[in-house]
Amino acid sequence: MRYAVIAAEGDLSHHDDTIDWDTVIGPEGKTRVNLPGLAVAGWVNDVGLLFPARYPRNVVGSCVLAMLGAPIRPYAGPIVFTGWNPANTPLGLLEIEPLPQPVAHLDVLHGSILKAVAGQNPRDFSPSWAEQIREIADHVRTAPTPGITIRKVTLR
To answer: Minimal CA–CA distance to 74: which of 94, 51, 40?
Structure first.
């Protein structure tokens, strides 16, 4: 299956094989990041932000997700991109598809975000877009880690 990964360090790689989710995302489990209106889904570690030593914040990947319509927030560890078609999920069953071709738009967006995060203004984007990317990157780096509340539930 065709998919792409943005490593926590920001490197983008493309793959065409079976995804070993435990190896790529982590054994804790994966969560889909909704990218509205796209035939693509992002996948992140379900609890990655709680283990910063194991899953550092993915600044570049978080910016890519934000520019594709995901909520602006920190995402930790590797981010996987696959194809996604909600019409192919009858009865709520999860069906992941190969990343659609061509994937050049992901490459261009990734490269432009790398430049913006480094303080440059990408050629095909406005300076205000680059500044917005830098603001998102700063938020990803500095936002507090979400907490977990554990409650005792008594069944009656």
So the answer is: 51
Distance between CA atoms of 55 and 69, rounded to whole angstroms? 23
Of 102 and 49, the structure prediction assigns the larger pLDDT to 49
pTM for the model stands at 0.88
Among candidate residues 46, 35, 29, the one with its CA nearest the CA of residue 84: 35
CB 117 within 8 A of CB 134: yes
Distance of CA 124 to the CA centre of its chain: 23
Burial (CB count <10 Å: 0-12, 13-18, 19+), residue 44 = buried
Tokens 């983008």 found at = 12
- On the question of pLDDT at 138 being above 90, the answer is yes
Strands (E) across the chain are located at: 2-6, 12-16, 30-33, 40-45, 79-84, 96-97
